[in-house]
Amino acid sequence: MSGRKPRSVANPLESAITTPSERILKECHSLYVDSDNGLVKIANSLGVRLLPPRKKIVVMIMGNHSAGKSSFINWYVEEHIQKTGVAIETQGFTFITSGRKRESLTGNATLHLYPHFRPLLEFKGALDYLSAEISTSKQKKFSLVTFIDTPGLVDGDMIYPFDVNSAITWLGQQSDLIFVFFDPMGQALCKRTLNIVERLSDTCGDKLLFYLSKADEAGKETDRQRVMMQIVQELCRRPGLNKCGFEMPTIYIPNPQKPSRCVNQIDGVCQTIEKAINQAVQKTLNQLEKDCDLISASISSRLEKDKSDVSYNKSVRLYSLLYGAMGIFLPLLFIFSFIVNTFVKEHLEELIGEGLAKILSNLTVIVLYLWEWIPEDGQVVVVILFMASCYLLLFLAKHFSRQRNKTLSKKEKRSLAEYNEYIQDIVKTKKGKLYEWYLQQCAAEYDL
């Protein structure tokens, strides 16, 4: 038995409290992934691809090594999850999220937990430096947040085991927020960090937020201002980063034993995360409405197409029957005309009756007249052409019979109608109630 001490957790599982936002996101997610009537399953049956919404927002934290990224995560979660120190402790990507049990996951298990991050496999070597830490903490808004702790960035001879610049850029594009921590102790102007920030600004400029971390260690206020000016000047020198002004709040981990006069805006970081969660709830509810409309429109389109296909099949069937009847009737009429002509009129009338005999005589007269009109040396050619024409008619009949489009069965039509009824009566109704409940919670919280 190992003598290793069990990890401490911020709070036991039994004390977990489901917040309104957490409940809404989970219920919306369940509407998508339900095994019987999930929106993803319904959409797939219609040839439409839907992605279930995330139950949490993703916050990526990047910066030079020892910039305080792991320390901030530990402070937010109120549990010592990530190693901290001056050395480059974080050499890979670590996903920190809340769950039912304290657990550590390796690369493959991490991608099973986060399947939408599987494209990380395209970065050779990254899988071996991918992990996840699951905590039972429910502090602050952690139950609705997944943090991504990125490798500490340095310049010089440091060799990373994978393309760290491209991997961080890709993860930033998948994140809801990107926190860039600048260390005031000498590594703030790390070129690798600035290069990645410049790349991210092209596609994720609205997600980027800059912070001067460990601000209490920067010395006097004049020293902090000088460091911030140097960082801002360096950022502004980059063509992709000089489009607008920068806000760079000063933050540090509060320590009652080491009071500091430096303004600490770390609570503002928490408010930023909470704001992103609220926006995620609204986006999820709005996307649910759009996806319901998309499915309903697809069902209506499928039913309209089926009506068009049924009408088309009727026309095709008519052409097939017409050409087939002509292909069979004409050669039979040709042969029958010569057979009838061999009978004496009186014998034919006695055999089938006077009225029917008269009708047959009129038909055969036309055929025989046309036959006698053809020269004898050309009759063989005409017969060949006639038979070829009859074969062409039969070929056209067969061709049109194969042109019919596949139509919906009664069972499929009933299923589509049930899906549409489920979308309108169940999903949209639930979405409306969730939105109303969310707004009521906001009004209660802010006394609106």
TrEMBL record:
The keyword Chaperone does not apply. Keywords: GTP-binding, Hydrolase, Membrane, Nucleotide-binding, Transmembrane, Transmembrane helix. SUPFAM superfamilies: P-loop containing nucleoside triphosphate hydrolases. GO terms for molecular function: GTP binding; GTPase activity. It holds the Pfam family Dynamin_N. One of its GO terms (cellular component) is membrane. The chain crosses the membrane at residues 321-344, 356-374, 380-397. The keyword Ribonucleoprotein does not apply. GO terms for biological process: mitochondrion organization. It comes from the Eukaryota. This is Dynamin N-terminal domain-containing protein.
